[in-house]
Amino acid sequence: MKTAKMTLDRDYAIATIDKRIYGSFIEHLGRAVYGGIYEPGHPTADGNGFRRDVAELVRKLGVPVIRYPGGNFVSGFNWEDSVGPRDQRPRRLDLAWFTTETNEIGLHEFADWIAQVDSEMMYAVNLGTRGPDAARNLVEYTNHPSGSYWSDLRIRNGAKDPFGIKLWCLGNEMDGPWQIGQKTATEYGRVANEAAKLMKWVDPSIELVACGSSSRDMKTYGAWEYQMLSECFDEIDYVSLHRYYGNQAGDTPAFLARSVELDFFVREVSAICDAVGAQRHSRKKINLSCDEWNVWYHSNQQDKEVLKRDKWGRALPLLEDVYNFEDALLVGSILITFLRNADRVKIACMAQLVNVIAPIMTRTGGGVWAQTIFWPLMQASRYGRGTALRPLVESPVYDCKDFDAVPLLDTTATLGDDGSVTIFAVNRDMREDIELSVDLRAFGSLRVAEHSVLHHDDVKAVNTEAAPDTVKPAAGEPGVMDGGRYTVRMPSLSWNVVRLMKV
Question: Among this protein's residues, is 173 annotated catalytic?
Fold first, then answer.
């Protein structure tokens, strides 16, 4: 058995963890809305047509913020289409995904649903085909109490009280050639600056996320961030990062190391934000919103076939990745990466929430179940609160296709407000268990409350409606606490959560 060591101290604090790093995303894409959260006539549907079984699982997942309504979709979206009487809302061709949007579910309906699942809305404005005027009107509609055209229209549409949306995305992936209304960095920075200025004039309390590069692989990566921020630095609060990973090559060790690249991405964009601030002699600190991230590759070929067969259809089964056990391990490492960068990553949204590259899957007219990736996000959201600690870790390493000296044990820890310590760890070793020894002498007397392990002998194992518990957390060996030192065995290829409580 291999061994690893970790030293923790309450004074080795990175930052207070922003709970919004455990967010998610609902786009008007595929069966995320229609057939996902909303299915009138389903046995569990409430009076508004929303599936109660889905809402229950979303609440269990515990996502504090949900980005909406896109995504690529938003760059061609007229927000006014989504309010007012349903029978008067227009059907539109969605050029982002080549489907038809009915606008049956819109701003008011989604606001009602998001309150049911104990979350908050992160709303994206259209800076593709539209601009600052539509953006400021939307903020007036959602957030102004009354006495103006747009706020009074909201009241006439049935919402006396403002929605109070505090977090806004200034467009989506505006550097991408696939994007409706693609812009250069300077073009986007200028329109983002003006939209931000007007939106904050309407409601100074809001926070704004500007589009960073849609991928670290973009040719304009780095230059985009610098040029964009040079135009809108003073008006925005966060820069977005989007990152998806896949294991097309079937190389599990290399796939599980992809979170190393995400760490590079976070540190590089943080450095660019600081460089622009330094150039401007500004003390302002721009933080990061990783508001699209996940594993995404299983459904790529299937999506081509669906669109070839039924282009312009409604709620097509697009991006319906079926996640396996190794996907859950990488998701765990991504969450660990966010915690290790809690001083800069303040928002993160797993894309997406239901059916579309999602932790939750449904069958139309049938059941709902948790995919493998559900469990790391749920446990991190539930137990990864408080202060992120900076651990000193000694771990065996391995080399793979893209990286050298990758730690076999990917681990971090958090300090709860109640004095509890939670350790999150992924054992990347394909064959051997790892015995982790943790120095906890700085925390006083602790007891082991739980050691939860997510493991399966088959890295390709999946959860289905018929077998929803194939990959699910189980109790691991509790380990041994001895005079401020804790030792625990972490099985090969496993996601581990160890909860240590004050005695």
Answer: yes
